[in-house]
Specification:
Layout: E1 6-10, E2 13-16, E3 22-31, E4 39-44, H1 55-67, E5 76-77, E6 87-91, H2 96-102
Antiparallel strand pairs: 1-3, 2-3, 3-4, 4-6, 5-6
Length: 112
């Protein structure tokens, strides 16, 4: 994690997938790339390969985000190319930007 551009939204939590298996997440974070689209990164302690579209796992992540103040719509599965063994990447809706800004994210595209 790069302290200049990574913004941690949540610390460790447990997330259960659609088959009932619990997974230990280390953190939820966003990367301040400076433009309007936000990908949400969830780091796990053990591999979660193949679970990037698991609705229950995604719902568990959204539930955790709600505990830290997110009030918007659900997140969706991110680009399959971005997924890694211990990393779940989710796409955030535009409404997520308000929450992200409250955590220190800056949308540099607003200047254009």
């Amino acid at each position: 994690m790069n302290n200049d551009t990574d913004i941690q939204l949540s610390g460790p939590f447990k997330a259960t997938d659609g088959s009932g298996r619990a997974h230990d997440a280390k953190a939820i974070r966003i990367f301040d790339e400076g433009y309007g689209a936000i990908d949400v990164y969830v780091d796990f302690k053990a591999p979660i390969a193949g679970l990037h579209k698991d609705k229950a796992l995604i719902a568990a992540v959204v539930a955790q985000l709600r505990t830290v103040g997110y009030k918007g719509p659900e997140l969706t599965a991110g680009d399959p190319v971005l997924q890694e063994g211990r990393l779940l990447v989710l796409e955030a809706p535009d409404e997520f930007n308000v929450f992200a800004a409250s955590k220190g994210w800056k949308d540099l595209s607003e200047d254009f």
